[in-house]
Amino acid sequence: MPDTRIEQPLVPRALHWWAVLTVAATVCLLALGAVVTTFRVGMADPVWPTYPWHLLLISYDEPSAGFLIEHTHRLAGYIVGCCVIVLAVWLAVAARGGWLKQLGWAALVCVILQGVLGGFRVRLNALVGTDLAAIHGIFAQVVFSLFVGIAVCTSRAFARPTTLEPGEARSLRRLALTLTACTFLQLVWGSLTRHTFHPLAQRLHFLTAFVVLAAVAWFVKAVWDSPAARERLGFAALLLSVLVALQIMLGVEAWLARFGTGELPELQQVTTGQAAVRTAHVLIGSWLLAISVSCTLLVGRVRVPHAAADAGNLFEPQPRTDAIHAGPPSAAGVHHLEASA
User: Fold this and answer.
1) What number of other Cβ atoms are within 10 A of residue 152's Cβ?
2) C-alpha–C-alpha distance, residues 85 and 91, integer Å
3) CATH no. of 163-304
């Protein structure tokens, strides 16, 4: 039978909650970024870099609403950056695993790259237009997924092995990875649609939605068919079902408002209601990706006590049983061999 011992988390509990706080701050940053894109105010201030406290240095009689939105987005970026600095250093000091320390430093490098991309999007706007804005939006999903992965890996749920059998775990892991890949691809097409209005991106974004829906249905069915998987991933599967249904409704509404009026999207005046729908659509897409990443990591945390079992199991070293490490024979064993001879 699989080992079901309760293990200690890989980090102190306070560090896990700091990782969760970093994820929450990043959700706010993503929401502000979506509002910036929706109202097309990314160039409200062509100066970069600016101080984090820039809004305290200006007269509020001058800036437009777009200026305030853009600088609030930049301020949120600074806050997330500070959270990640603390997270990376804390992981380096307190984590019980070299790979988790490396994830912390990777998160810090990624958030720095994301900030630089955002700055280049402003400084090079005249040269590359919205191309860097689209890349900035896509890479934001990668960074967010990394933060979510760290929060999952530092949780008690990740430290607790499950009763999943090796073959069942491999199957669920493949389904979770497929769902993660399809969801990320859908977000890529969505970012290109929002920033470039490219006809091919529009079609691919629409068609990939059906693929994501099928992947969610397949994964949820696999989870619900297994008592062990349902115990570990049941809540995530239920949340996936609810969010994907809500995402489809928001997507239809956002699509009709942008492309169903007969007016060119870049010439439309965005209302507050349309901005709320589009922002919610972007955020739920990010949450679907985050849940997919979480399921992939949680399925990977399966303890297999036998060396012959699941060699591809994530995060769990397999015990060595070769004769080299068996140690010297006991005295009783030696006498038994001599007697047999």
Assistant:
1) 23
2) 10
3) 1.20.120
